[in-house]
Amino acid sequence: MHTGPSEAVEHPWQGVRAGAFEGAADTYAIHDEMRRQAPVWQAPWGDIYVTGYDLVSNSLADRKLSHVPPGSEAAQPDSAIRDWLIYQEGSTHAALRQAVQQPFVGKGMAALRPVVAQAVDEFVGDAGLSGAVDVVAAFTRAVPERIIGRLLGVPDEDMPLIRAWSVAIRTMLDTGFDDAFGDGANPADEMSGYFVEHLRHLLAAGDLPPLLAGLPSLADALGLTAAGRNIAFLAFAGHETTVHLIGNMLFHLAHRPDQWTALRADRRLAANAVAETLRLESPVQKICRWPLEPVVLGGREIGKDRLVVLLVGAANRDPAQFADASRFDLGRAGRQNLAFGRGAHVCIGRALAEMEGHAVLEAALARWKIIEPVGWQWMDNSSIRGLDALTLRLTA
Ligand code: HEM
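Output (structure tokens, whole complex):
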């Protein structure tokens, strides 16, 4: 999810680079230029950026492009992040993924639904929510946090810790990726330490929360340290993106009263609202890969180990793929967006994230006739797209 700045190199497109990111306003304008002029672009600082839908889609599923940063094992064999599912390959990845994804498939999802409903009711059902409200502070962050906390059995009073670590990890993966895989302690190590203790406690108590029903075999297979590290990753990945799906969706609906009215008239459009937000304002904007051998991408040869940044946010606005691509349109049908990735590492929490987005939207539609934008602040992050604040005028 990053490009690591090492030295300053001025370029009109440097805003795509972590560290040089200058706010959300011009990101998509840069993506549009890149897609038109150089859909596979080698930046002066060496990294490759890919913007076109087909190129990004094919690259996501290309096994010659690795998830594992080259040299990271030798650099820091003990970094917690190195054990994360998302940075594994081949059979190690397949076995770990199989163990972690169990609760998200088939009947497992039914156990998650009441937890989602309760969290939405708790925060969006709050009778005080009317007039000008910062919905990020009121509920878009709190709902996914509460859900992942309950699903992993984290006590409510520990959630501020999880929030602080998640925000720090989000920043580190954007601007300090080399540090994340480097020598020093980082927030992922701290969060993993917490989860190792948490898992130890759960195993002793024998009362396992919904996402950890398979904990005994996971801990047997991996050992408690690697299990704790992966559950810390699940806690982070399991809410830091969904928070932004919900905020970004309300942002667009507040700016499009015609679409809000259409939704109120026909609730079956709610699923389209979730999908259209994921396309137009993808919470994960960047996915990183490293070629295991020289590869040709869009006619350009790319050397082994070169960082390739797949700009999912740009692919999802490719006009060759999506007509009138920068328009939020509930009537859009057709090809899938790439917001959850593709291939062996495609998101395992997709159904849960969509369930959360849908549940919050249903609750908002039931409560407010009108939602109007008052003010907002995009996050300073080039990899994760979302709002630090979103004040809406809510009218019942
Ligand atoms: C709107 C919300 C979400 C978005 C946009 C999102 C996006 C993504 C993307 C793009 C990837 C693939 C990254 C890559 O190929 O390198 C991914 C992987 C992953 N996601 Fe999500 N995600 C969301 C919600 C969730 C939730 C709710 C969970 C779990 C509770 C979750 C757990 C994971 C895990 C464990 C992986 C790694 C899978 C692997 O490496 O095999 N995600 N997600």
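The mean pLDDT is 92.
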